[in-house]
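Continuing from the previous page of notes. For each protein in this section, the sequence appears first, followed by its structure tokens. Read the first protein now.
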Amino acid sequence: MGNPRSEAVTPDGAADFVPARGGVAALRRAAEGCRGCPLFQDATQTVFGAGPEHARTVVVGEQPGDQEDREGEPFVGPAGRLLRKALADAEIDEQEVYFTNAVKHFKFAPVKAGGKRRIHKAPSLREMSACRPWLDAELRRVDPELVLALGGTAGKSLLGNSFKVTESRGVLLYLPAGTLPATAQSRAGDGARGLVATVHPSAVLRATDRKEAYRGLVTDLGVAARFLT
């Protein structure tokens, strides 16, 4: 069950671990030793973002899942595979996408004491805030044209606690140029970075009508695709 560690958590979250210089590779190396919140104590490893360093699109999910935690790569489990299919169906080139999460360690609970199966638990506001410097740094290094926020946690990390995916999904929003994360919708302008929110693909997998939920996801991604053309 995980990889328990006893190192102390830093009071300022991840901020003390983020290097001032270097690209995404430097961020990834530094994140391996992050002790910004208690989640590192039980997770197998840090799961940092992956993809082209100057991708046109950054996909932001909630946190790594069980398979991602074991493999050390984002979006490699069932939800990730469904997302990649949806991106292709929406005609968004996966080779121009950087995949990451708002929280870089897997938060989970065992199904039963001593069991091997681990069930995802949503990160708390404190854990999201502690990990936010990593997401800020990734976005600044990659400097994408568009950000895709998958689900409520990702949306709140980018747009604040009032964000609701049910109210904002499939709508083209904008992040202020040079200011990440945004706290409110801004007017489009020169250099504005687009943002489109949609449901997390794991919600599609849980849906009663999976086909309809998948169509909704692809429709939302289509808004992003049109922005990129």
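Done with the first. The second protein uses the same format. Note its length before scrolling.
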Amino acid sequence: MPVVRPSDAVTHEIHGARFVSYATPRTGSRQLCAWRGEIPAGTKAPAHTVTHEEILHLLDGELLITLDGRTERVAAGDTVIINAGATLTVENPADRTAVSWVTTSIGLQARLANGTVLTPPWAN
């Protein structure tokens, strides 16, 4: 039975945010990836279009989530469904770090506005 302990999680940092990866093929997952996202106060990630559906559940703090041009304020306890092909921007306007739990299927990629394609290791 694969059990991923906090000491086994792998931390990645990009665009000012931290992604702590728990479930990936490396840790025994066959279909899904899951990670804790930590978005510091004042951070705004660049807009990116995702290739796979993502489910983001906010554990602590608040975020401004923009999906395909529509912005919603999301608070702890809220869940956001990000469909494949959606363009997403995440911003933390608060004065403390926001913490989320995110799940997607293996193989997620994100295309930035400048055409750069990211293959995040926490989702592959």
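What the second structure shows: The chain has one domain: 6-123. The domain at 6-123 is CATH 2.60.120.10 (Jelly Rolls). We return to this in next week's lecture.
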